[in-house]
Write a structure and sequence with these properties.
Strand content: 15-25%
Order of helices and strands: HHHEHEHEEHEHHEEHHHEE
Strand order of the largest sheet: 3-2-1-4-5-9-6
Structural class: alpha/beta
Radius of gyration: 19 Å
Distance between the termini: 34 Å
């Protein structure tokens, strides 16, 4: 698959899942975004770039902390941006300091050193060349400006994801390599940031998991997030059978508190040169 094919597939996938992305079962995106105002050292006047803004979860968490500033969010998916606009309007105080643009994160159409800071939540690993992407993002930030990215820590989603992958392989579907595992430890994330030339690199780890009420909530994670492309390869009949089998094994993990969803997020922060 060449670069254009990969981008077209990503756009199609996220346009498809946009309606349910970040909804019930996927509160971990919101839990992660809640940490961003503490990780960013904002004064309130900054212009911040939010790369791969998706449905605007990070943007709407940061924007209230910029009363004299603004957030510019970019994403390849128009479907995701439509949800982001709706999210910004739906806040208790509608956020008018967020602007959103359809844009390729490999070709950010703003001048170098245009922004005071940049964020990329759970997006940097969608490209195999994360180093070049991070350097490109950092180039859009003024010298000394903060560049933050987050990803999943090793072991996240286990054992649910192990059960999912083992079962879908029985249907003849081979999972791809998960690129986020290239930055799934503090050491790996630190190496990426220092390799990209960022200064004052710090890595933060935060638990963002929670118990799910039922197995259907886990299915929403599959259906509206990164695993949609795998189950989409099943026929209609196979999909019904797969869902029944897989959710039965997930339901068997339920305790008095619910079905554990173990997720840890890593946040990397550095300063542009």
């Amino acid at each position: 698959m060449d670069d254009n094919q990969r981008k077209a597939l990503l756009k199609k996938t996220f346009d498809t899942v946009a309606e349910g992305y970040g909804s019930t079962g996927m509160e971990f995106f919101h839990h992660a975004a809640a940490h961003l105002p503490r990780i960013f050292k904002l004064q309130g006047h900054e212009h911040l770039l939010d790369v791969a803004t998706g449905t605007g979860i990070a943007a709407t968490a940061i924007a209230p902390h910029l009363p004299r500033g603004r957030v510019t969010g970019i994403d390849l998916s128009e479907g995701m941006l439509a949800q982001a606009r709706a999210r910004a309007r739906a806040q208790s105080q509608a956020l008018d300091n967020i602007e959103l643009h359809p844009m390729d994160m490999q070709n950010i159409g703003f001048d170098n050193a245009h922004f005071d800071a940049a964020n990329c939540s759970f997006g940097i690993f969608f490209l195999p060349d994360m180093l070049s992407l991070l350097q490109h993002i950092a180039s859009k930030v003024k010298p000394g400006g903060q560049v933050v990215a987050c990803s999943f820590y090793q072991g996240s989603f286990e054992p649910n994801v192990d059960l999912f992958l083992e079962r879908i392989q029985r249907y003849g579907i081979a999972p791809p390599e998960f690129t986020w595992k290239g930055i799934c430890t503090e050491e790996k994330f630190y190496a990426l940031y220092t390799g990209a030339g960022l200064d004052e690199v710090q890595i933060h780890r935060h638990e963002i998991g929670y118990p799910l009420h039922d197995a259907e909530a886990w299915w929403r994670v599959i259906w509206y997030a990164g695993f949609r492309g795998l189950v989409a390869q099943l026929s209609d009949t196979e999909l019904v059978q797969f869902k029944q089998e897989h959710l039965a094994e997930i339901a068997a993990r339920k305790t008095d508190q619910g079905i554990p969803l173990n997720i840890t997020a890593l946040f990397a922060s550095g300063r542009a040169q």
